[in-house]
Design a protein that fits this description.
The chain has four helices and no strands.
Length: about 110
């Protein structure tokens, strides 16, 4: 493996691991090919991207569909109050995992 590019973005001078346990785990990960990683929480109610919406520096991409950019204090108050209305009574992670497996995801 040493000296082989993992992908075109591998930094120059990257030191590949040499421990067998690490190499075995990396091989397992590469073999999985198709995965699902999902972030889900109260922030999904207004359709913002996780906590990035709280960073004014990221407002141009993290809350482009929400007109709270000019009133950051109001936005932050509303964001911190989302836990009061978040009630996922139809949350079925078992069904999500089943659908992902049926779609061919190798790990979730």
């Amino acid at each position: 493996m040493a000296g082989q590019e993992v992908h075109p973005y591998t930094p120059e001078g990257y030191v590949y691991p040499g421990e067998k346990a690490v190499l075995d785990r990396l091989e397992w990960f590469r073999d999985q090919k198709f995965a699902l990683m999902m972030h889900w929480g109260p922030y999904t109610q207004p359709g913002i991207i996780e906590s990035w919406g709280l960073s004014d520096e990221d407002s141009s991409w993290s809350r482009s569909d929400i007109d709270w950019i000019d009133n950051a204090d109001k936005f932050k108050r509303q964001y911190w109050d989302l836990n009061k209305s978040f009630n996922p009574v139809r949350f079925r992670p078992d069904r999500w995992a089943e659908l992902a497996a049926d779609a061919g995801f190798r790990y979730c």
